[in-house]
Amino acid sequence: MAVRLEMHVAGRIEDYALIGDMQTAALVCRDGTVDWLCLPRFDSHAVFAALLGTEEHGFWRLGPAHPAGSEAPRATRRR
User: Fold this and answer.
1) What is the DSSP string of 18-65?
2) What is the pTM of this model?
């Protein structure tokens, strides 16, 4: 499986949603990146902090392996 590396730019603040469990929280952008996350508590150091700078500050992206509009490889069955 090939890993695609892309440049990441933090989104606009209105593009984020806050998800959490009353212990910690994450800011998740519309594109599926987790750009801010402190673990294991709100006052812990940030694990992902892309909001503060570049992709070197860390982020995590969730999404389909093949974005909408691209063609996914098809499995073929031999007979």
Assistant:
1) EEE-SS-EEEEETTSEEEEEESSSTTSPEEEEGGGSSGGG--EE---S
2) 0.59
From first to last of the 79 residues of the chain, give the pLDDT tens digit. Answer: 455 555 556 678 899 999 999 999 999 888 888 888 889 998 998 888 877 766 566 666 666 676 666 666 666 666 6
| Cα–chain center distance at 73 | 24
User: Is residue 2 in some structural domain?
Assistant: no
Domain count, the chain: 1
Residue 67 included in any domain: no
